[in-house]
Amino acid sequence: MADRFGKAAINKPVIGTDGTKMGVLHDITVDVRTGALVNLVVEPDISFNTEGCQQENGLLLVPFGSVKSIEDFIMVDRSVMY
């Protein structure tokens, strides 16, 4: 089930609660000891200002705690990210 969720979520658009298109989901990081989801790894949209965002190798690291919903797109509360 979790494997299916992960595959289905990859390439979903990531949108801020303010309507800002942040990018698309590239990967998800997991704490291997606990199984807890840690970060969404997001390929930023060319129009998204990444200044102040946590990044690694040009990808955004969005804390999983900022996720508000996952449906056709992933809704993220940007105020929790910083």
Short description:
Helices cover 10% and strands 44% of the residues. It is mainly β and 82 residues long.
Show the helix and strand layout.
Layout (H helix, E strand, L loop, with lengths): L1 H8 L3 E4 L4 E10 L6 E8 L10 E2 L2 E5 L3 E4 L3 E3 L6
Parallel strand pairs: 1-7
Antiparallel strand pairs: 1-2, 2-3, 3-5, 4-5, 6-7
Task: Provide key terms for this protein.
82 residues, mainly beta, SH3 type barrels, 44% strand
Characterize the structure shown.
It is a single chain. By secondary structure, this protein is mainly beta. It has one domain: SH3 type barrels (Roll), CATH 2.30.30.240. 10% of the residues lie in helices and 44% in strands. It is built from one helix and seven strands. The chain has a seven-stranded mixed β-sheet, with no helix packed on it. A hairpin with a 2-residue loop joins strand 4 and strand 5.
